[in-house]
Design goal:
The chain is α+β, with helices and mostly antiparallel strands. The chain contains five helices and 21 strands. A hairpin with a 2-residue loop joins β4 and β5.
Amino acid sequence: MTMRRLALLLALLTALLRLQSAQAARISGFSAVQEGRTMVLTYDLAADAALVHVDLLLRLGDRLLDPRDLRLSGDLGSVSPGPGKRIVWQTGDDFPGGLAGAVEGELTAVDLVSEPVSDLIFARLEGGCFEMGCGAWNPFCEGDEQPVFAACPGPFALATTPVGAASFAAFLNDSGRGGGFVGIVQTDGRHAPVPGQEKTPVGGVSREDAQAYADWLSTKTGLRFALPSEAEWEYACRGGGRRFVYGSADGRMPGQPDEPATAPSGLNALGLLNMSGGMWEWTRDAYAPYPRAEGATGETGVLRGGRLGSPLRNARCANRYERDPLVREASSGFRLVLLP
């Protein structure tokens, strides 16, 4: 990469970087400086939380760059608040022939809050209106994902991972609830996680089981927990309501819609793990046609997210799976919302 192109990149990044903070996390003092074949981005981070998830998305012309393919290092991911945060981008290695076109950037900061009883971390999301459902940005749509309509979830905090086996076993022991669950063993009437799988998402959970766990945790902590609504879940999967197909860092996953999901989606821009292709996750809503209102009632529930090995089309953020809320399937789990 030539020095002239690097200088152009610096000017574009400085001019076009869009700062987007969710809830209390605040970014200020951003600057970008050329240092040889690298770009050094610095910023100050203020937050009420002890940890913040920081994510950088870069777009070259019409092409969104996958952060996993870029040589980015420094204060990304889980970051402690403070001044002088630093991100290093090895632009000369990623684009040895230089960059052709404008570069835009988006720096996102989301508060992370720990809850010790459940051993979960919650991402505080600001919510807001977005186009819910399957739009033209999807490669494949099903009938119950349409029409696209405006959904406007308010502020909420979503667990970065599904509920793990150790915490669910503690709930079973406290409540006396029975059943066979993936990742949990029972000995002498007591439940325990399979050794080494304490934080592995519990499976084989019905929506009724998941709601009972949310009620138990609310009583234990004095806080309010619930399953996410369909709108909250999809907003979060799409990295804050972006026109993303999957719950990955850039909204993409390898493969065609009818091919099996070979790996989960990983972290998305909000710090949420494996919302696509990990496991099916329960929402609190009843299944109903679109457009729908919050709190719709009905006989069946809705699972989201697909699972590893199922067709990739099931892992799309817009996909809905109608299911009996009492059914326990090995690939079904849940993550929680912490309500205001």
